[in-house]
Amino acid sequence: MSYGRKLRAVVAGGGVGGLAAGLALARAGWEVRVFERASAIGEIGAGLQLGPNGWRALDALGVAERVEVEAFEPEAIEMRRGASGRVMARVPLGAAARRRWGGPYLQVHRADLIAALHDALEAAAPGAVIPGAAAVGYENAGAGAALHLVDGREEEADLVVGADGLRSALRSAMLGPEAPRFTGHVAWRATVPAARLETVPAAAATVWAGRGRHAVTYPLRGGALVNFVGLVQEDWRRESWTEPGDPAALRAAYAGWAPELAAIIDAIDAPWRWALFDRAPLPRWSDGRVVLLGDACHPMLPSLAQGAAQALEDAAALAGRLGARPDDIPAALRAHFKERIARVSRVQREARANLVRFHRDDPVTRFGARLVHRLAPSWFQSRLDWLYAG
């Protein structure tokens, strides 16, 4: 290891996790390059939710203020019965979230988050982001490592970060091919201009729960857009974020549900859908000077809204563990895994459990939720303390 130069990190993947990792390492004093498969940095339009833990990671990266300006801060998380729209439980957010968990709960367009991270990285390390460069593997060699790109190039570095998503080439190279477990569910997603709706939706993150399916709706961009995500039990197994869906099939999946939800679905012209696969926690995230991050090592079902937040946490924790000049990079990466694995594994478990909870539609479950909401409303908040305050 040379002490006469900055250490160099190369990152595979220019999504939320990859850009955050590049930014965190650049702020820690590393020379950084981020290689993204797509020809331009961006995302298909969709929203995501960032709990207070995700906001704290953004704050550590220096982009929280910009994201807050462009995000929507909801008043509450509401669980409603899908068929009737009746509120079964409510968790106050807004000022209550800031007081209890030390930060806001935000709803942000994915493209806005990507742009904030990208611009901050370019300001810290001009020219760091290189589009049109897909990673296919890596190797450890002597006192360094190299990222292999599809065009045959090898990018040498002191550290290689695999933030290349659900179908990570670096994860396969590190741990071999794996067969993910199909959950039996398909997810739909879309955004709708609020101007197309006769009734303005509630300023809340709303879970519409029902037997065998649920949906989540919430405002974006100051209420100008409404985000929709729907999870339905179905045996369709294409794991792609960019598969167009049939609007008529989406409407049929939620036929007979509450009018407020039906109005949002009716306004969707071009939904996207993807099959949901589950993966068990990995035995390790690193190999020598190569480390996995975000969906590449701990993909999560969307039913806890933590995928982006956990990738941001990964990036901040990794840079904090390494610092500007670690004495032993492989040992630091192993310590990073030990620090993070219990938390992200719990998030994965809770996301799976939520999928079951949201798809119950029996009188006992509905009555129990309403009773707790009426007699001990802070109980629902306490159930989230480990996640949002952690």
TrEMBL record:
Keywords assigned by UniProt, alphabetized: FAD, Flavoprotein, Monooxygenase, Oxidoreductase
Pfam family, one: FAD_binding_3
Gene source species: Pikeienuella piscinae
Residue ranges constituting the FAD-binding domain according to the UniProt record: 9-324
MF terms in GO: FAD binding; monooxygenase activity
InterPro entries in alphabetical order: FAD-bd, FAD-dep_Monooxygenase_BioMet, FAD/NAD-bd_sf
Cofactor: FAD
Listed name of the protein: Monooxygenase
